[in-house]
Amino acid sequence: MKTSTILSLAAVLIGLVVIEQARSQNCKCKTLALGKCDAADGNAQDCKCVLQIGTDERPVNCTKLIPKCWLMKRESVGTKAGRRPRPQNALVDNDGLYNPDCEANGAFKARQCNNTDTCWCVNSAGVRRTDKGDKNKKCAELVRTFWVIVEMKREDTDNTQNGAIETALRSLITNRYNLPPKYIEKFVENSIFVDLKQNSSVKVLDDVDIADVGYYLEKDIKGDPIMHADEKFEFLVNGKNFVVKEPLILYVDEKPHEISMKHLTPGVIAVIVVVIVAIIAGIVVLVLTRRKRGRYEKAEMKEMNEMQKELNS
């Protein structure tokens, strides 16, 4: 092969590398650090992004939050994990990460089995809302989670006013996660409670889902962000970084959950047993104490009667 031909091929390869670098620089997935993006002719407006889930690629809209079901599915691939006063029927995601079955639009399927013979029903946030059963388990519908409660602890030592925290947090949720303000309700005192409410009758088709917002926010607080590295998580209150930690997410559905006592986890059962034993022990001690006191009072009365007889004789 002639030297001139080799040089020409090298120039072509270098040109392709330069073009590819230009595309990657002009094209990024804002809401997904792991998104693979490409822009035709280096034009960022023509940016096309996909989420790699195993060998599957899902086209994603990087101007919006990625559906929680797809994010959980990707995170579970290659892992062994499969898995204030609270409102009545509030659910905590105690089952953890599992590899979910998702609809074509990224929504959770109502029934989840995680590639096993054990199945259960989930809500629209992907949280189990029924007891587990076998392959014959039926889930008539995907019940909507209309209320997501995000609880977090604050580390500030400057006695920052609650009003300033509320304003900053409302701005953060609206701007970072694109959740319309009408779905953000209230904040409370020393621990911070954020109520996100969005029932099926008020949610507009293109609105971000509160379950997705809760998932992104939880990851941000834990220091495991989903968004692109350029989209740094900053909770600024009065111009200063306000540190929050230990997020707890609660889910309330439009219909009561169907989890029964017989399927409580061993840890919860152990706590209940300890409490019951303590109550019984307290009752026994109280009864014995009263019996001893009664015997003492009877003996004391008998001695006084005998002394009175001796004085009269």
Keywords:
single chain; 313 residues; alpha+beta; 2 domains; 4-stranded antiparallel sheet; 3-stranded antiparallel sheet; 5 helices; 11 strands; 35% helix
Give a description of the structure.
By secondary structure, the chain is α+β, with helices and mostly antiparallel strands. It contains five helices and eleven strands; from the N terminus they run αβββαββββαβαβββα. The protein has two domains: 17-60, no CATH class; 68-263, no CATH class. The protein has helices at 3-26, 68-76, 162-177, 210-221, 266-312, and strands at residues 36-39, 47-53, 56-60, 91-92, 111-112, 120-121, 145-154, 192-197, 236-237, 240-241, 244-253. The strands form four sheets. A four-stranded antiparallel β-sheet has the order 4-11-7-8, covered by helices on one side. Strands 1-2-3 form a three-stranded antiparallel β-sheet. The longest helix has 47 residues, at 266-312. The radius of gyration is 31 Å and the shape is extended.
Strand content: 15-25%
The shape is extended
Mean pLDDT: 81
Number of strand segments: 11
Rounded radius of gyration (Å): 31 Å
Helix content estimate = 25-40%
For the sheet with most strands, the description reads: 4 strands, antiparallel
Overall SS class = alpha+beta
Order of strands, main sheet, comes to 4-11-7-8
* N- to C-terminal distance: 142 Å
Please tell me the total number of domains.
Answer: 2
Tell me which oligomeric state these chains represent.
Answer: single chain
- Name the helix and strand elements from N-terminus to C-terminus, one letter apiece: HEEEHEEEEHEHEEEH
